[in-house]
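Recall that a protein's primary structure is simply its ordered list of amino acids. Everything else, from secondary elements to tertiary packing, is in principle encoded there. The following example makes that idea concrete.
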Amino acid sequence: MNLNNDPRFREYIKRHAATPRPNPWFTRKVLRSLPPRSQRVARFIETSLYIIGIIICGWLGVKMAMTLITTQEMMMDSSSLSSYLMIIGLFCALLYGLIDAYWQPRTIAEKE
């Protein structure tokens, strides 16, 4: 006898199940608006990686700028200029990704 497939067992559980007391903090509307746990974990990992990347790119950009300032050379060769622009571009892309992940327009379903 398998209890998962037994209709009498399911009926018994339905009849004798305890009904939860109403709680205004745990309505269906509130529980539906919560993201699934796996999505929250993924969002935390994504945010952490964005922040780490922004910090690294910012540090490299400042380090390259300070090197340029301290050497008193206002001329950059093409490889260092392309490296500097690539770091600035990566910094901006990571910053945009971080902002875009949290700044999304609300849909009509979320407003209800």
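The chain has a mean pLDDT of 78. Helices lie at 7-16, 28-33, 37-70, 78-102, 108-111.
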